[in-house]
Amino acid sequence: MFFRPCSFCSHLDVGCPIQKTAGFPPPPNFPSSCLSCASIAIPENREHLDTHPSKPSRERHTLPTWYTSTLLARRLLHKSTVGHITTNFPSPITPDPIHHYNPPEMVSGLAVTLPEYIASCHPDGNPTFLGLHLGTTFKNAASGSNVSLSLDWWDHHASNTDVTLRDLSNSRMALPRAVLIGYLEPYPSPVDPETRVGLERCFLDAHPDARAWLPGREGAAHAGFWARLVVRQVFWVGGFGDRALIGWVNMTEWQGIREDGSVQGVGDGRGWGDVLLPGEIE
């Protein structure tokens, strides 16, 4: 379990002790009270998980390197336009009648997962969000919850569920997925014009309908804001363990990978544009 809720925390007058788990800094643009109501326990290594069957497979597979796996993870982020976001409800919950936010007290401190629009607008692997102030995901993040973003390749690649035990290569479970863990960081408001134009172009390219709730748009359906997920850890599941790696990626590599290469000193010079996910055609 990644999230561990803080039991005693108040937005009014009781501070929640800052937990140092995994060395996460507090989200800089959110209220200072109750910044660590959900902490994340991250293992200090990224050993390959032993998921091999007890009996040897008839077919031998060559495992990719960790750098290749990280390239695939960055490509998965770039190709994804929707992800499932997990946050924790604050504890205790403070109702917001203006935005009709009144969760039952029994969910206080519990995790909730919701689908959200995302776009890969930054070269460093921090995905962009068009947050809505009334959204549960963004309310929880503003209350100090850490954020995890789950991505998968299941809906991008046709999968045959009628497979035999001898050949599971067409199973959805053989396809890549990843969890990005960090915190949400809003852009300064108002966003400078050059940055705003770039964000709108990138996000609307993935989600044309989001024009209806662009931040600052006159007559927008909801009040929104630009934010990014500051990714601190990434857990990668490349597929079955006899042919793919499973574990924690190197964050220096994650942040240093670009589409057409990598920053100096990172990897072997390849970028995420040099690899293909299952089913992609060159």
UniProtKB/TrEMBL annotation:
Coiled coil: none annotated. Residues 71-250 form the CREG-like beta-barrel domain. It comes from the Eukaryota. InterPro entries: CREG_beta-barrel (IPR055343), Split_barrel_FMN-bd (IPR012349). Pfam families: CREG_beta-barrel. Gene3D superfamilies: Electron Transport, Fmn-binding Protein, Chain A. This is CREG-like beta-barrel domain-containing protein. It comes from Aspergillus steynii IBT 23096.
